[in-house]
Task: inverse folding
């Protein structure tokens, strides 16, 4: 750790989260700030990677500011099993141990995702029944291993197509048939009677067909008594789209169904048109406003429907957005120097009712 990071890390540990109104006596110090976990009435989470943990500033900020973590990729199927199908626990175990050590809850992401299907399963050579047994066995093994550590799982991630809302033509859909989602939920519930079961997707806040398919699926599961506890609304949004009214309408529809809402995978792109090469103060303030309005809307939900808000990464340069969209991007709460951005203040202000 270089001197600068040592200083920032020490400062973070000493000031963040110690008290709501922490002040610094040394005017040379950066402004101290309040930890979200010390103010929020619901868990505030962040996606992490095991390689960034350890004693550096990254883990220092994560554990002082947040009280929930999600593996950014290390609890997905492709990473929990090897090419031949044997289990690889090392990284997931490290994340869980970190969370336990720092009194953070773990949201599991994700048992089944068409983009993280390992080749041993994608090219499974047995019968459909054997395929389903293998999926069930996977779910049971993973869920029971982390039964004491993981409070909630995304049972299935992104099952519906963009635009049409049709079920994706995944190997799970092909091998298990159109009712496969119900059975995934049942298998997860059988593995752990207490863990919270979520359906997680993007686009439900701007794609009407996808939203309708998701709500129809929820209605169908509920009508048949198949357990589902909540919905993850992946909050990959921009500073302008989709409008807040869309997001509120979707949250209301989920509340009407008595489910918990996870604002999952939050990031707020400020450079969707690629017109910026540095983050401007103006765009940063618009990002702050956006974060503020979304957190405020979440605060307005009945308490029993507020599951958590999870950020998809800690610092801007670590975000998946940069590779995914190919533009410079500053979508998260912390800048490259581990400093909270105006968006962080926007989050705090909403928590405080401002
Ligand atoms: C992304 C991670 O951020 C990347 O590190 C990984 O390589 C690919 O997956 N929707 C999801 C997340 O549900 O799992 C994705 O995470 C981002 C989109």
Result:
């Amino acid at each position: 750790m270089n001197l600068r990071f040592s200083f920032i890390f020490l400062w973070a540990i000493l000031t963040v989260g110690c008290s709501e109104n922490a002040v610094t006596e040394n005017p040379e110090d950066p402004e101290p700030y309040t930890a979200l976990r010390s103010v929020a009435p619901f868990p505030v989470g962040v996606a992490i990677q095991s390689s960034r943990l350890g004693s550096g500033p990254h883990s220092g900020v994560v554990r002082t500011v947040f009280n929930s973590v999600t593996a950014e990729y290390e609890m997905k199927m492709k990473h929990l099993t090897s090419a031949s199908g044997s289990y690889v626990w090392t990284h997931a175990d490290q994340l869980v141990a970190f969370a336990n050590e720092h009194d953070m809850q773990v949201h599991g992401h994700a048992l089944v995702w068409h983009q993280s299907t390992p080749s041993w399963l994608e090219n499974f050579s047995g019968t459909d029944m054997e395929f389903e047994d293998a999926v069930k066995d996977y779910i049971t093994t993973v869920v029971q291993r982390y039964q004491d550590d993981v409070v909630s799982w995304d049972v299935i991630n992104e099952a519906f197509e963009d635009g049409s809302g049709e079920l994706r033509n995944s190997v799970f859909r092909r091998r298990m048939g159109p009712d496969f989602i119900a059975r995934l939920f049942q298998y997860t519930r059988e593995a752990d009677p207490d863990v919270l079961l979520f359906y997680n997707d993007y686009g439900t806040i701007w794609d009407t067909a996808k939203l309708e398919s998701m709500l129809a699926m929820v209605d169908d599961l509920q009508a048949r008594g198949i357990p589902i506890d909540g919905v993850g609304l992946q909050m990959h949004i921009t500073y302008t789209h989709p409008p807040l009214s869309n997001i509120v309408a979707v949250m209301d529809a989920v509340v009407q169904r008595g489910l918990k809402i996870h604002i999952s995978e939050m990031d707020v792109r400020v450079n969707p048109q690629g017109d910026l090469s540095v983050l401007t103060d103006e765009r940063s303030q618009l990002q702050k406003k956006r974060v503020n309005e979304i957190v405020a809307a979440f605060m307005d939900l009945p308490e029993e429907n507020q599951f958590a808000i999870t950020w998809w990464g800690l610092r801007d340069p670590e975000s998946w957005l940069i590779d995914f969209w190919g533009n410079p991007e500053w979508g998260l709460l912390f800048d490259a120097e581990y400093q909270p951005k105006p968006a962080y203040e926007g989050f705090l202000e909403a928590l405080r009712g401002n």
The beta strands are 44-48, 68-71, 105-108, 112-113, 150-157, 196-201, 230-238, 260-269, 306-311. The first helix runs from residue 3 to 15. Residues 72-73, 157, 234, 265, 320 surround XIL (CB under 6 Å). Residues 255 and 305 are 6 Å apart (CA to CA).
